[in-house]
């Protein structure tokens, strides 16, 4: 019985053994990554402009399409028309690898996040710790980008961004610790299952309701 997304994909292709595991994992990673990137690319820019405009009492994008929903098309044209400028005397290998390190840090965490019942690339027993571990890789990419540019101000900016990331991780770790205490496990599927019980008043026992202070933090 297929229990994870790679198992389901390998069974659909009629593959088994090591080949089935490899093909299922690669195709599953591509599907989940493409879905998350597509949804983020469609909703992210529009939501960011709307939310920041509400914070600053401004009118956000409302000219490009209904409610400004076609802003992603304008952003795509703008990005495709940009010129790639590479400073002189850069450390080219580190310069080229830094964006991939940052992107990998963001995408690897989705491998253990359950998207639904059985829709999960991997379910290690230390899934939550894995998410924090791969998220910390972003700091390496920031230092690489700052150092490779051969500019002291870029390096200082990269170090400042790393310090910010470390500071942001402190409240995240505190809230994650409370989740582990409630769920009794680091496994992501176990954390989800622990929130399926009824809390009362027609609500599920989501930790946002059980521990609202950690949710707000």
Note down, in words, how this protein is organized:
By secondary structure, the protein is an all-alpha fold. The protein folds into 2 domains: 1-82, no CATH class; 87-217, no CATH class. It is built from 10 helices and 2 strands. A hairpin with a 2-residue loop joins β1 and β2. The longest helix is centred in the first third of the chain and has 39 residues, at 17-55. The radius of gyration is 21 Å and the shape is globular. The mean pLDDT is 82.
Keywords:
10 helices, two-stranded antiparallel sheet, 2 domains, mainly alpha, 217 residues
Q: What's a quick, concise take on this entry?
A:
By secondary structure, this protein is mainly α.
- Looking at the chains present, what oligomeric state does this protein adopt? single chain
CA-atom Rg in angstroms: 21 Å
Helix tally equals: 10
Q: For the record, give the distance between the C-alpha atoms at the N and C termini, rounded to a whole number.
A: 40 Å
Question: What pattern of helices and strands is seen along the backbone?
Answer: HHHHHHHHEEHH
**Percent of sequence in beta strands:** under 5%
Q: What structural class results from the helix and strand content?
A: mainly alpha
Compute the average pLDDT: 82
Gross morphology: globular
Number of β-strand runs: 2
* Lateral arrangement of strands in the main beta sheet: 1-2
Count of discrete structural domains:
2
Low-confidence segments, ≥5 residues, pLDDT <50? none
Q: Which percent bin holds the helix content?
A: 55-70%
Main β-sheet description = 2 strands, antiparallel
């Amino acid at each position: 019985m297929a229990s994870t997304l790679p198992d389901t994909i390998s069974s659909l292709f009629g593959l088994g053994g090591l080949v089935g595991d490899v093909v299922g994992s690669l195709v599953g990673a591509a599907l989940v990554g493409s879905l998350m990137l597509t949804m983020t690319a469609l909703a992210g820019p529009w939501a960011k402009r709307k939310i920041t405009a509400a914070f600053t009492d401004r009118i956000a994008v409302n000219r490009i399409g209904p409610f400004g929903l076609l802003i992603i098309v304008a952003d795509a044209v703008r990005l495709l028309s940009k010129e790639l400028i590479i400073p002189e005397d850069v450390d080219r290998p580190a310069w080229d690898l830094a964006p991939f390190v940052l992107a990998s840090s963001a995408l690897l965490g989705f491998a253990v996040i359950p998207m639904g019942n059985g829709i999960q690339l991997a379910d290690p027993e230390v899934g939550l710790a894995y998410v924090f571990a791969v998220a910390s890789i972003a700091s390496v990419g920031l230092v690489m980008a700052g150092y490779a540019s051969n500019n002291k101000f870029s390096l200082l900016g990269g170090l400042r961004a790393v310090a910010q990331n470390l500071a942001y991780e402190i409240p995240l770790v505190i809230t994650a610790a409370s989740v582990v205490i409630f769920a009794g496990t680091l496994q992501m599927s176990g954390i989800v299952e622990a929130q399926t019980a009824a809390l009362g008043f027609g609500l599920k026992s989501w930790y946002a309701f059980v521990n609202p202070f950690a949710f707000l933090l």
